[in-house]
Design brief:
By secondary structure, this protein is mainly beta. Helices cover 0% and strands 53% of the residues. The strands form two sheets. Strands 2, 4, 5, 6, 9, 10 and 11 form a seven-stranded mixed sheet that branches. Strands 1-3-8-7 form a four-stranded antiparallel sheet, with no helix packed on it. The model has no long low-confidence stretch (mean pLDDT 95).
Length: 111
């Protein structure tokens, strides 16, 4: 059974950086990517970035050039480095793999 646990969220000023971590356990299928979504209260969940087991990445247009997704397979961890954060990126960030989701990691960006 796959489990995902996020960490690294918190508060940061606009323009600042945070790095989220998603520690995975269980057997991850090589067919599916692991990635991040985010969701603000009352809003639809938005895909942020994803990475395949081989390291191929994909990003939402809104974060290209500012966010970097990476993985360390030896540590069973997927990272999301977020730079130049904007106020409207205050969301709960969720790690996912196939149909499995973590519990979410709140990020607050203040002015």
């Amino acid at each position: 059974q796959v489990e995902l646990v996020e960490s690294g969220g918190g508060s940061v000023q606009a323009g600042g950086s945070l790095r989220l971590s998603c520690i995975t356990s269980g057997w991850l299928s090589r067919i599916y990517v692991t990635g991040w979504y985010r969701q603000a209260p009352g809003q639809q969940r938005e895909r942020v970035a994803a990475i395949s087991m081989s390291g191929v990445t994909n990003y939402a247009d809104s974060v290209k050039g500012r966010f970097t997704i990476s993985r360390d397979n030896a540590k069973n961890t997927v990272y999301l480095q977020m730079d130049k954060l904007k106020r409207d990126e205050t969301d709960v960030y969720y790690c996912y793999h196939d149909v499995v989701w973590g519990r979410g990691c709140p990020v607050t960006v203040s002015s």
